[in-house]
Amino acid sequence: MTPAARNALDATASDIGLLVARVGFGGLLAVHGTQKLFGWFNGYGLSATQAGFEAMGYNPGKIFGTLAGLSELTGGLLLLLGLFTPLAAAIALGTMLNAVNATWHGGFSAFEPALLFAIIAAGLAFTGPGRFSLDSGRPWARQGIAWGAAAVVLAVVAALITLVFKWAL
Questions:
Q1: What would the pLDDT profile of 94-115 be if each residue is shown by its tens digit?
Q2: Whether the bond into 113 is cis, omega within 30 of 0
Q3: How many angstroms from the chain centroid is the CA of residue 3?
Q4: How far apart are CA 118 and CA 113, in angstroms?
Q5: What is the rounded distance in angstroms from the CA atom of residue 130 to the CA atom of residue 12?
């Protein structure tokens, strides 16, 4: 096999890996959103989610619970499709940073899933969606260090704003 052919296969393997990561992670995150919003997949539904957010100190729970569900669903679906990937990763990461904060008191096993989702979202912000995505080859497609860093900064700022409102309201 020539070096050029090996490089092409390696690039394809990376794109397949990104596809698997995006579809798996994005799909799971979207499912979490549907659990919160609609009660699908044995979820609690919107009313119980909103009450749970009130109990965690996110007041008003109607706004924060709905926003969390919508963020998980939207960010998850965009990542699954590989569409507007840095923005989708920022949505997912910001949401998961708040989830880590909300579950921190329960110890590592309580916040580990949210932390894992946050790590994957941050990684996808930098790598981009890969060739097998709706972003691929489009004029709006963005990836790399600058876009990854911008997505992480946006996520952190959004998470901090949410926490400020949580603590202030």
A1: 999 999 999 999 999 999 999 9
A2: no
A3: 36
A4: 9
A5: 9
- One-letter amino acid of 47: S
Instruction: Compute the distance between CA of residue 51 and CA of residue 60 in angstroms, rounded to an integer.
Output: 9
Give every CB contact of residue 40 below 8 A, 6+ residues apart in sequence.
Answer: 31, 34
Which DSSP string corresponds to the chain?
--HHHHHHHHHHHHHHHHHHHHHHHHHHHHHHHHHHHH-TTT---HHHHHHHHHHTT-SSHHHHHHHHHHHHHHHHHHHHHT-SHHHHHHHHHHHHHHHHHHHGGG-HHHHHHHHHHHHHHHHHHHH---SSSSSTT-TT---SHHHHHHHHHHHHHHHHHHHHHHHH-
Torsion sign across C-alpha atoms 25, 30, 33, 38: negative
Using only the alpha carbons of the chain, give its radius of gyration: 17
pTM, entire model: 0.92
Tens digits of per-residue pLDDT, 15-34?
A: 999 999 999 999 999 999 99
Cα–Cα distance for residue pair 111/97, rounded to 1 Å: 10
pLDDT digits (tens, 9 = 90+) for 121-132: 999 999 999 999
Determine the pLDDT at residue 74. 98
